Amino acid sequence: MNQVRVRIAPSPTGEDLHIGNVYTALINYIFAKKHKGMFIVRIEDTDRERIVEYSEKRILESLNWLGLNYNEGPDIGGSYGPYRQSDRLKYYQEYAQNLIEKRHAYYCFCSPQRLDEMRKKQQLERKPTLYDGFCKKYSLEEAREKAKKEKYVIRLNVPDEGVTEFNDLIRGKITFENKLIDDQILLKSDGFPTYHLAVVIDDNLMKISHVIRAEDWISSTPKHVLLYKYFEWKLPIYVHGPLLRNPDRSKLSKRKNPVWVSWYKEQGFLPEAILNYLALMGWSMPEEKELFSLEEMIQNFQLEDIKPVGPAFDIKKLEWLNGEYIRKSQISNLKSQIYKFINGKYPEDLIGKTIPLIQERIKKLSDYLPLCEFIFEEPQKYEIDLSSKKDVMFAIFDALQKLGEWKAELIGISMQEVAKKLGMKNSEFFMLLRVAMTGKKISPPLNESMEILGKEEAVQRIFQWVK
Ligand code: GLU
């Protein structure tokens, strides 16, 4: 195999990197690593109306956050740049002219009104809405003259007959009838290329060996195949992976599932867990192993093994997997992840002390603060009104005061004694103590939490009910 060079080509038209694009990026990345190839990011920003200003920056940040490091890209450069299509306009113009000369493309001067009428008529006649070739009648000289004065686009000259075929590595041969392929606009009247022209030129100039993308690009591929043929370029190997889908099989969409990487980050999903989960969307490890690292995936991965249809995207399963990753984390690692996640709001060493208490209990980093905030701040609310429990509080206060060594075990023994002395049921007594310390009826293990709080703070939390 020649050098493997693969790419993702996100369009900066959304909030951030789409989780579906993360899936595509992951397969490209793994495949590149497996074959010691290059993984490239190209920004496809030719659809000027849909551009979202900060999108490119976030897309690149998200790729880095996920650890899908790329070898060439708009921010780091490379030998085949620029890697942003709006910086490559000269290529598209030049190659469009090349097609015009070979009559594989032609100028089209049709007005929006004419195109609209044409489409309406086609719809009425229940025909496919394709450009009718009206402007093919001009000779090249006539068209060039007209183009000096009138607005124009450049269209692909698709043969009326025959078929266009390509081989997809995981789907086999896919055939399209030429009469159903539109004379696609290649260059728009603003001088910008459409996706179809730009993607083919760039993939060729950037020496992309395998085009690995989602299945919704299959219907565009025959246009690309024709372009490769007209340019007399070697076709890349095509792989159209499965789309991520909602449980009802519709394409994963904002309305039914969160789609932006930023959401997953804010929720405290770990990059490793996200990638591990996505890997399962169309591929499986030997023996259906569910938890595995990128390294293991690289070792076992074969492009051919990707299934054309994946399971539905299931956020509950991702949560479960994320919890598994949290449990597997080293304490020091989890500590610093939580510290970063809460933007350094509370001291890192104190967070470290709480980890053994909560590591088994949280599924996402965002579960941490609701469970542990009482360690850092006095509770704002108490789930039981303790003002009528003065006697109990006083007995606790007294016993805690007298404790010499402040250790979870000793705190526990002393509190058992207090409960006994008061003749209270353990469950009832410890519920009051728990609420006094944490504000909540459910909390991490109490004695250990009190040890972390420290004697002074714990006594103070009781004392306020005695005053
Ligand atoms: N710009 C396209 C996208 O936004 C790229 C499709 C392709 O990979 O060819 O997904």
From TrEMBL:
Classification via SUPFAM superfamilies: An anticodon-binding domain of class I aminoacyl-tRNA synthetases, Nucleotidylyl transferase
UniProt binding sites for ATP: 254
Domain Glutamyl/glutaminyl-tRNA synthetase class Ib catalytic: 3-320
Keywords in alphabetical order: Aminoacyl-tRNA synthetase, ATP-binding, Cytoplasm, Ligase, Nucleotide-binding, Protein biosynthesis
EC top class, as a word: ligase
Subcellular location: Cytoplasm
Catalytic reactions on record: tRNA(Glu) + L-glutamate + ATP = L-glutamyl-tRNA(Glu) + AMP + diphosphate
GO biological process: glutamyl-tRNA aminoacylation
Family: Belongs to the class-I aminoacyl-tRNA synthetase family. Glutamate--tRNA ligase type 1 subfamily.
Protein name per the record: Glutamate--tRNA ligase
Lineage: Bacteria, Candidatus Gottesmaniibacteriota
